[in-house]
Every structure is written in C-alpha cells, then in structure tokens.
Amino acid sequence: MHEVEVKYRLGDEAALVAALAAHGVVLSDAVCQDDQAYAPAAWRYGMSKIGVPFARLRTQDGRHLFTVKRPVDNEMACLEYETVVADREQMHAALVTMGFMPTVRIVKRRRTGRWDGVSLCLDAVEGLGAFVEAEALIGTNESGRAVQERLDGLVRSLGVPVTRTTDTYDSLLRSAAAAG
Questions:
Q1: 28: DSSP letter
Q2: What is the CA radius of gyration of the chain?
Q3: Are the C-beta atoms of 1 and 147 separated by less than 8 Å?
Q4: Per-residue pLDDT tens digits for 107-116
Q5: Is 78 within 8 Å of 53 (Cβ atoms)?
Q6: CATH homologous superfamily of 2-179
Q7: Residue 86 has pLDDT above 80, yes or no
Q8: CB–CB of 104/173 below 8 Å?
Q9: What per-residue confidence (pLDDT) applies to 170?
Q10: Which residues are registered as beta bridge partners of 164?
C-alpha cells in the first residue's frame, strides 16, 4: 500500500479543531510521539528523496514502532512498511549496521481523527509549531498526486487558513536549524 498525505502549517489550531467538530470529527486525546529519523549514509539533505528508503523509530506510550518509507510520486506519497519492535536501542544499532544514519529527532503531540474515510493528524511539533495532516492509503496502481489533490480540497473545504507544505517534518526541522 501507498500512504499519501498532505500537510499544512496552522496559524489558528483552535479554529481548525472547531471546524472539524462542526463536521462531526472527534479528535483523540494527545499522545507524545518521539521519532528518530534515519537516511541512507550516502544520502544528504538537498538530494532527491524519490525512490530512497528512509527509516523511523517511534516511541509512543512505551511502544516502539519501526517504519520504512520509500517516496514514490513525491515526499508525501510513499510505500510504507511498519512493525512493532521490542528494543529501540537494538533496532537503532541494526539500522546503523545496515547503513542508515540518524538525521533528526522529531518530538510531537498528536491528536487523530477520521473524516470522510481520511485519517487526520493534528500535530504540535517541538521547534516548528502546529500542523494538520490528511492521510489516505491507496493501492499501488493509484496516483498519489491525484489523491493529494482530493485531500487538499477536503482540508481547504474547512475554511480555515492553512499553508500547505510539501516538506516532511525532518526536512522542516533541518531547515529551521540551519536558519536559526
């Protein structure tokens, strides 16, 4: 399966929550996600991400998830594989042994909901601010770009000011660190 998403920076998180509630969307309580992003050792920021596998170790509520994403259409339309791992440190060592290097740490508070068959994530990312993501799972024969346009229309139909970004959180954090 492909995971396809669109991401937006929020100026008014409360307005988004209210607009979602008006559409019957109930958001979960916030959970803390502590993510370590990894890239192949030969890859550098500024290089294309298309076709390159990237890894993530996430800890949430004492549970560790290992994820690999490989962008297909763009950075936000990826083949994705995910599984629970028992030991985060051992998985970190395995990733480094396989030629992956840690890039950035992403810590966020996430609330989730569903609307019209779409997964929504309302994120407060340390060092970046508030974002909303809309995500859909599609078959490998579907166009990620076409689904992104549908998701964009859905988010914009809320009538809340948002600024779309095509960068992933790791790239946004890396840019913020370089600028500051």
A1: P
A2: 16
A3: no
A4: 999 999 999 8
A5: no
A6: Hypothetical Protein Pfu-838710-001 (2.40.320.10)
A7: yes
A8: yes
A9: 93
A10: 8
For 174, phi and psi rounded to 5 degrees? Answer: -65, -45
Compute CA 80 distance to the chain's CA centroid, rounded to the nearest angstrom: 11
For the record, the structure tokens of 162 come out as: 């948002």
Q: Where are the alpha helices (DSSP H) in the chain?
A: 13-22, 88-97, 144-156, 169-179
Query: Taking a C-beta distance cutoff of 8 angstroms, is the pair 91, 64 a contact?
Result: yes
CB-count exposure of residue 86 (10 Å: 0-12, 13-18, 19+): exposed
In contact, 12 and 130? CB cutoff 8 Å: no
Res. 59 pLDDT band, cuts 50 70 90 = very high
145 pLDDT above the threshold of 90: no
What digits encode the pLDDT tens for the residues 109-143?
A: 999 999 989 999 999 999 999 999 999 998 877 78
Domain ranges across the chain:
2-179
CA torsion sign for 15, 20, 22, 28 is negative
Q: What is the pTM of this model?
A: 0.91
How far apart CA 19 and CA 16 sit, in angstroms, is: 5
Cα 34 to the center of its chain, rounded Å = 12
